[in-house]
Write a structure and sequence with these properties.
2 strands; transmembrane; Amino acid/polyamine transporter I; 447 residues; two-stranded antiparallel ribbon; symport; transport; mainly alpha; NRAMP_fam; disordered N terminus
Amino acid sequence: MKTDARGEIDGPDVIDPDPGAPKVQRLKTFRLRNFFKTLGPGLITGASDDDPSGIGTYSQAGAQLGYGIGWTMLLTFPLMTAIQEISGRVGRVTGHGIAGNVCRHYSGKLLGAIVVLLFTANTINIAADLAAMGDATRLLIGGHPLLYVVGYGAISVIAQIFFDYRRYVAVLKWLTLCLFAYVAALAVAKVDWSQALTGVLLPRISWSVDYLTTIVAIFGTTISPYLFFWQASQEAEEERIDPDKKPLTKSPRDARSEFQRIRADTVIGMAFSNLIALAIMTTAAATLHAAGKTDIQTSAQAAEALKPIAGPFAEWIFALGIVGTGLLAIPVLAGSAAYAVGEGRRWPVGLARKPKEAAAFYGVLALAGALGIAINFAPINPISALYWSAVINGVLAVPVMVLLMIMVGRRAIMKQFVVRGWLYWLGWLSTAAMAVSVVAMLIGYFV
């Protein structure tokens, strides 16, 4: 019987207790619950990509441009999958996240600039997501949105600090199911499926400023630096929660099975993310664009605008999805900022640690959440803040991706697990696509 390095059965095999008896082949029973348990950082990362601010971007894209923008999801899927898998490999191979590797092999000033920009962008994004969640809850049950902002922000931070890590990750995974609200919203919309399919498979590119700006916004939403940091750090967290696991540089026999797990987890997570984003775009195209409502700025506005067109049910499930995705995304935003700062300073980090074991790490996490709440009480336009968050994310993504691709090609960092072949070149293609998007964004801003 074939076994892996940990003595576990590697795939279907033959059970043969009695050599003289007839051979009976037993396949491992597939259980959806067990399969769901094997998913982790990739699924949570992909789902958190569809945060309330991202929902606003996708709704705006569908409302403004109709079905013709769906092709962007087909394009971004392999690009974001490649860069996220590479991020996951860095964490699992080295036992450190991206910031932890940068501080060990590159300039401290470079790391400082990256961490400051990441913390700033994540904090603004937390503020925008909390604002959207507050507005969505107001639509559902009334009340003052700022009260909900404080409540959701406090719940997210407290849960990360005081919940048992395994249970908390399980909660995050179950929260990904809230994204099916947008499949339900799509089901009640009157979609022209021939046009929707054409929009996915046949790009119709317009060289107008609005069209190019929307594409840049979509790229900036789907390929974001905080996702790289989160997935790498969560893979590095594996050795802290499972004493039998070590960085693959110290346990190379586990590499094949671990890389297969990371790939499956990432592909499923990114596919889920893009399918939900496409459902949001298609719903907005079939309802808001078809009705001439193209001036949509936030996810809450999209939910409110759906009511007279698709009915109160569509508004309700759209708004409920905003709250659910926010509860998933805020921990990822705050957590990735804390990992970046903590690893860069070589502090004890990790959500699997008790608060007293990683006080500084949890302090940064709480600070990001508190500042996100506070921004909502400041005289700052949340839409403008979100725009500048997207600008910072776009500008930050390119050097981080370049640095990431250089790291995974260095034997001094990755040892025998340097990334090569099609994954390596697809990672560089993703980096180039992001660079083109940022240049287009800057040209559109200054010209």
